[in-house]
Design goal:
Elements lengths: L2 H20 L6 H8 L3 H7 L3 H25 L4 H17 L7 H9 L4 H24 L2 H5 L1 H25 L3 H15 L3
C-alpha cells in the first residue's frame, strides 16, 4: 500500500470505530482526524464530506463482515457448524472489548433517514449477508427440503434473528444474547420454517 492508501484506510477505520462506538451524528470530522493523527487536509483530499467517509465505512464493514462469514462458511459442513464458527469470531471481538453490536446496523440505521443515498450501501451489505446464509443453507441440503423460494425466506428470517440479537446486544451488552442468537438460528433452520 502507498502512503496515501494507508492514510485513507486509517481515516476509514478511525471513522468506522467512532461511528460504531458513538454513532454517526455524534462523530465529527475533527474527532476522526484526532483519532488518526492526520492533518485536516488529509481528510479533504480523500473525502469531500462526512457522508462520503460513511459510505466508505459501510463498504469497509460490509467487506469485513462478509469475509468473516465467508470464512466461517468455508470451514463449515452444516448450518450449525457455520453458526458456531461465526459466534467464535464474534466472541474474539468481545475479548478485545471492541464489540458494539453490528457495525452495519449501527451506522446504517442511523443514517437511513439522514443520508438516504447511503442507505443503499447498507442494503447491499445486508443482501450479501443474506446470500451467504442462503449458500450455507443450500450447502446443508435445506434447499432440497424447502425449495428455493422458501430457502430465500428462511435466509431472510435468519438475517432478522442475527441482526435483531446484535442490536439487542448493543443495547444491553449482555453476551448471553450472542449465545441466544446461535440457538435461535439453529432452531429456526431445524424447525423447517
Amino acid at each position: 500500500m502507498t502512503k496515501g492508501e494507508l492514510s485513507k484506510k486509517k481515516i476509514i477505520e478511525a471513522a468506522g470505530d467512532l461511528f460504531w462506538k458513538n454513532g454517526y451524528t455524534k462523530t465529527g470530522i475533527n474527532e476522526i482526524l484526532k483519532a488518526t493523527g492526520l492533518p485536516k487536509g488529509s481528510f479533504y483530499f480523500y473525502f469531500k464530506k462526512k457522508s462520503e467517509v460513511a459510505e466508505a465505512v459501510l463498504q469497509y464493514y460490509g467487506s469485513r463482515i462478509t469475509e468473516l462469514l465467508r470464512a466461517a462458511a468455508a470451514d463449515s459442513d452444516s448450518w450449525g457448524s457455520f453458526c458456531d464458527s461465526f459466534l467464535r469470531a464474534f466472541q474474539e471481538e468481545l475479548a478485545d472489548k471492541r464489540y458494539y453490536g453490528c457495525p452495519l446496523a449501527v451506522v446504517g440505521t442511523e443514517i437511513a433517514f439522514q443520508e438516504k443515498e447511503l442507505a443503499k450501501h447498507y442494503n447491499l451489505a445486508m443482501g450479501e449477508i443474506q446470500k451467504i446464509f442462503e449458500q450455507v443453507l443450500r450447502k446443508d441440503g435445506i434447499a432440497k427440503r424447502a425449495g428455493e423460494v422458501e430457502l430465500e425466506e428462511l435466509a431472510a428470517l435468519c438475517l432478522a434473528v442475527y441482526e435483531g440479537n446484535l442490536v439487542l446486544y448493543r443495547l444491553s451488552k449482555d453476551q448471553s444474547l450472542l449465545l441466544r442468537m446461535n440457538r435461535q438460528l439453529k432452531a429456526v433452520v431445524g424447525s423447517g420454517i
